Amino acid sequence: MTQRTEWMEPGAFQVAPGVHRIPLPLPHDGLRAVNVYAITGADGLVLIDGGWALEESRRRLETALKDLGYGLGDITRFLVTHVHRDHYTQAVAVRREFGTRVSLGLGERHTLELLTRPSRPEDSPQLARLLACGAGPLVARLRAAWKEGGQDRLGWEMPDDWIDGRTPAPLGDRELLAVPTPGHTRGHLVFADLGAGLMFAGDHVLPHITPSIGFESAPDTSPLGAYLDSLRLVREMPDLRLLPAHGPVTDSVHARVDALLEHHAERLDAGAAAVTAGAGTAYETARALTWTRRGRAFDDLDLFNQMLATTETQAHLEVLVTQGRLRSRADGDGVVIYETA
């Protein structure tokens, strides 16, 4: 086991008085695990995020809570950072059984309205977006995969309440501050415990990887622009311990935010250089770049990660247009073409 993987080991690990980190499994997912955080106190048991609604994840959560002297029925509330399945769906599953209150950022309403609406796979907004990226080959492969049963069929539901704007969330003798941090998703929240010096960061700030940008059913007009603004917002807050959804707890949110801002500045430069060298669409630009810490070629990524790479590249190119470094136009088929300004 390496230092980068030991955080995935099962259990309930105290990270602060009254706060335990519980890693839950993500089988068949490259992230491999997601941290949920159990907060105990005068207001009962509250969980930050819920995990993915899978039998293995439920068993792991039940075991960890039992070690703390609790059961699933003792959870009074889920405060969910964002709507992605590895954070939201198990909270909804527990609510169906025990009536637990589930809270989510208001910005996620757009995505949940689409996810809860009956539709055909070919109507997916993601496919239309990929077509605008010039990624026709990816769309054909995705449609084939969905016909074979690969589409996400989870039973999505609305939360009990929406968290609208920067909102205090009192938990007995502890108070969290819900702070909207759009970018990874439109309604992403972080929860700051200023009194204890903690930030429950969800996927907004991760210690070892950069969160995907632009992968959601109803993305913002400029998801990367929103994400960079949200990083700067968090950077202006007091420096807190980083309690991430994926990866180990670290001592400084600020240090990681600085690294993420530098990373995206480098990716913007790389995207601009690829367009200057002749890439015209987001898909062509993504294929010209390398991916992950290992610098993998686009063609070496699996289908899902090629989709993520393409939409993230589009997000970077749109910021370059906003900055005046590139210009864009749509061709007769609706494919967006980028050119040096």
TrEMBL record:
Top-level taxon of the source organism: Bacteria
Record-linked InterPro entries: Metallo-B-lactamas, RibonucZ/Hydroxyglut_hydro, Sec-metab_biosynth-thioest, WH-like_DNA-bd_sf
Pfam families, per database record: Lactamase_B (PF00753)
SMART domains named among the record's database cross-references: Lactamase_B (SM00849)
Domain Metallo-beta-lactamase, first and last residues per copy: 33-246
Name of the protein described by the UniProt record: MBL fold metallo-hydrolase
